[in-house]
């Protein structure tokens, strides 16, 4: 086995190695995600082959030691890839010895958490922080990098344990955020909005470098960041069943409310831009969405897929 090929000093492609490890288990392998990764860059296939060869060399080295039993199960051959063998505990130990403990520990270990409509979920992180997802939301995390999160859609409340040496970073679409020791809410959709309940957040640290303190919020409008005031106790209020709005377009309000209902709420184009100010009791809306009518001065009509807000006649 070539030690140069596996030595961390010569560079271990940890992303490709992680894919090679993940794809050795035919039961849990995510073929769709793997194919998407391969097709994202023509060089990914070659990187994967090198990583797969690394695994095979480690297996060969281990099999040359008959006193160490290795359980083996042949996995189905993935499209355009060579068949790989299941990596058990002994094999993992051999691989760690080959590439180095640091490279093994630092390899990406991504995972995704999603919620359905009406569902909320709290995700504790290994650094002591936590992420609470609203309905219809998706966050991308990594066990090897717990101080970073990507909010792909929906809304999340971040409760971060401050560490000045290792700041917590959040990516929400094109908007980058860095924690300065805080509790903050990030909402994506028709508008991307960040609101701070405790501590502070740095918005777009490599660009505008806008600091938000408790009681402040920012909304993304194209290339502009529009700052506003919020009640700190209302930040993340959806966890207690309420949504507070101050001049937010009805289209965005409906999108937010829909996260907490089994059936979505949509708005007629004629009133989608109308601003709304007020607090919505989510439990009351769940019982009867018609309560939105007098609150928003609209007509609530039951549609085929959910509820439609229309102008009053």
UniProtKB/TrEMBL annotation:
Residues 16-53 form the FecR N-terminal domain. It comes from Sphingomonas yabuuchiae. It comes from the Bacteria. Residues 112-201 form the FecR protein domain. Keywords: Membrane, Transmembrane. One of its GO terms (molecular function) is sigma factor antagonist activity. This is FecR domain-containing protein. InterPro entries: FecR, FecR_N, Ferrdict_sens_TM.
């Amino acid at each position: 086995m070539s030690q140069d090929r596996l030595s961390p000093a010569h560079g271990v492609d940890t992303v490709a190695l992680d894919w090679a490890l993940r794809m050795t288990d035919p039961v849990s392998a995510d073929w769709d995600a793997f194919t998407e990764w391969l097709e994202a860059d023509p060089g990914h296939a070659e990187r994967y082959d090198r990583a797969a060869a690394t695994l095979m060399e480690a297996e060969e080295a281990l099999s040359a030691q008959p006193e160490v039993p290795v359980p083996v199960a042949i996995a189905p051959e993935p499209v355009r890839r060579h068949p790989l063998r299941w990596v058990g505990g002994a094999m993992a130990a051999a691989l760690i010895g080959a590439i180095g403990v640091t490279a093994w520990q630092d390899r990406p270990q991504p995972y995704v958490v999603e919620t359905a409509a009406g569902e909320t979920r709290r995700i504790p992180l290994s650094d002591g922080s936590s992420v609470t997802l609203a309905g219809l939301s998706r966050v991308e995390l990594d066990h090897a990098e717990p101080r970073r999160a990507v909010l792909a859609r929906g809304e999340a409340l971040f409760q971060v344990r401050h560490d000045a040496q290792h700041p917590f970073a959040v990516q929400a679409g094109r908007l980058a955020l860095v924690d300065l020791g805080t509790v903050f809410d990030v909402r994506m959709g028709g508008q991307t909005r960040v609101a701070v309940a405790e501590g502070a957040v740095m918005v777009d640290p490599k660009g505008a470098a806008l600091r938000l303190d408790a009681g402040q919020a920012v909304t993304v409008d194209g290339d502009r960041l529009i700052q506003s005031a919020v009640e700190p106790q209302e930040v993340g209020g959806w966890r207690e069943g309420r949504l507070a709005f101050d001049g937010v377009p009805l289209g965005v309000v409906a999108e937010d409310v829909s996260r907490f209902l089994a059936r979505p709420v949509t708005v007629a184009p004629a009133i989608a831009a109308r601003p709304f100010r007020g607090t919505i009791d989510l439990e009351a809306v769940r019982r009867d969405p018609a309560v939105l009518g007098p609150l928003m001065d609209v007509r609530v009509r039951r549609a085929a897929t959910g509820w439609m807000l229309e102008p009053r006649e």
